[in-house]
Amino acid sequence: MIEDHSVDESENATGIGDSIRQRITELQLEHRGLDTMIDALGVQSHFDELQLRRLKKRKLQIKDAIALLQMQLVPDEPA
Question: Which of 18, 27, 43, 45 is the most buried (most CB within 10 A)?
Fold first, then answer.
């Protein structure tokens, strides 16, 4: 007997897509928070240069992670 799993697979794919979108939203919020922290640090007359570099590095890591997750949401185009 052959079972049709296409409905299960599409539901699973939708769940994965929702999970990816949720993670993207979380990362975007963290990215904006880092923007705020970096701006606040830049206004101070005496700020920790190392901390600023770490925040900027983390911000870039988040940007890269968002880009990778967004690529996972785009379906592959047939050749």
Answer: 27
Helix axes 49-73, 6-43, angle to 10 degrees: 160
Return the SS3 of 68.
Answer: helix
DSSP state of 78: P
In angstroms, the CA 53 to CA 57 distance is 6
pLDDT tens digits for 41-62?
988 888 899 999 999 999 999 9
For residues 9 and 61, the answer to whether their CB atoms sit within 8 Å is: no
Provide the number of structural domains found in the chain: 1
Average pLDDT of the chain? 86
46 inside domain: yes
Is residue 56 domain-resident?
A: yes
The 3-state DSSP class for residue 7 equals helix
